[in-house]
Amino acid sequence: MTIDPVLSVEGLGFAYGARTVLSDIDLTVDPGELVAILGPSGSGKSTLLRLIAGLERPAGGRIAIGGTTVADARSSLPAERRGLGLVFQEDALFPHLTILDNVAFGLKGLPRSERRARALDALDRLGLADRADDWPHRLSGGEQQRVAVARALAPRPALVLMDEPFSRLDSALRQQIREDVVAVLRDTGVGVVLVTHDAEEAMSSADRLVLMADGRMLQTGTPEACYHRPVSVEAGRLLGPLNVVPVEAEKEGVVTPFGRLTLDGSTTGIGDLAFRPETLMRSSDGVEARVVSRTFAGAVTRYLLSVGSVRLEMKSFGADPELVEGQTVRVALRTETAPTILSRDQP
């Protein structure tokens, strides 16, 4: 049996005056799926979320929630009638309402006892049932954001939209709050669209990524596929450092600074060999490189290497012997993680 998506976006476009902000966006979200939209500032990711939420009206295309069209170029259903849960960067709790009343606020039309029961259930899922009678100012930033998530879940929507929900939290707290909230969202089976500029947050949270830049979708796929097999240098670098080496692909293989490589799917012509810093390793059989700089970051040490005229980044983990600036070392590509060949005419 085919399960209909909770969200379907087709050919969506949006502009501010003469400036195109989004162009030809297609997106689906299935029940229980968490899709992260990742891109730099100005990529259009938050505008896309606002269009889905009903806070902006599209210039073209169609948005459907639960199979029902809620927006197109001719009409747009108001945000409050779309049945969505919304969590934004600013938690926006009402300071004059208790935590329980904040969560129950969006449950109008239900008997008081049911509103209270639903609100308490949502708070319990987020581990805050014992704070129901507290006031927002007595909660930490992480607790306030949990309340915002509880409020979004209390009406039991099929789809929750989250715009940079953890960005205001300090780094020591952010990961734990994120993991807890994502676990609750998965437990409810709700579809989720998470907008973020944090690559680690996107990859660790999502079932599927949507990579955006300049109002365009660059790539969509699993976090693993997008990270290891980018379709372009621009898409690859959204997820972290990427070594890019000009190469020439021939029928017999790809001519690289590491020798001739045989890679699946490679084509003939001039292109770029793209690979992550952790794909590069020390090897007595490798090519000679010089250490240009070294950056210690705890469990990882990053090295900038010079291989001929090419500068490459390498990551060293754990107990690997340290290198120093100016030292000569031999390096090779790990065979278990094949690099990607990107032709020059790819986006």
Task: Describe the model.
There is one protein chain. The two termini are 36 Å apart. The protein is globular, with a radius of gyration of 24 Å. With 347 residues, the chain is an alpha+beta fold. The chain has two domains: 7-233, P-loop containing nucleotide triphosphate hydrolases (Rossmann fold), CATH 3.40.50.300; 241-343, Beta Barrel (OB fold (Dihydrolipoamide Acetyltransferase, E2P)), CATH 2.40.50. A six-stranded mixed β-sheet has the order 6-7-8-3-9-10, sandwiched between helices. The protein has a five-stranded antiparallel β-sheet with strand order 13-12-11-14-19, with no helix packed on it. The model has no long low-confidence stretch (mean pLDDT 91). Helix 3 crosses helix 4 (141-153). Strand 15 and strand 16 (300-307) form a beta hairpin. It has helices at residues 45-53, 99-104, 112-125, 141-153, 171-188, 199-205, 223-228, 233-237; strands at 7-16, 19-29, 34-38, 60-65, 68-72, 84-87, 159-163, 191-196, 208-213, 216-221, 243-250, 253-256, 259-261, 269-275, 280-297, 300-307, 310-317, 328-333, 340-343. Keywords: ATP-binding, Cell membrane, Ion transport, Iron, Iron transport, Membrane, Nucleotide-binding, Transport. One of its GO terms (molecular function) is ATP hydrolysis activity.
Biggest β-sheet description? 6 strands, mixed
The shape is globular
Assigned CATH architecture of the largest domain: 3-Layer(aba) Sandwich
Structural class: alpha+beta
The radius of gyration over CA amounts to 24 Å
Could you spell the SSE succession in H and E letters? EEEHEEEHHHEHEHEEHHEEEEEEEEE
Total number of strands: 19
Structural domain tally: 2
State the helical fraction: 10-25%
Amount of beta strand: 35-45%
Q: What is the tally of helical segments? A: 8
Q: Can you give the mean pLDDT?
A: 91
CATH superfamily of the largest domain: P-loop containing nucleotide triphosphate hydrolases
CATH class of the largest domain: Alpha Beta
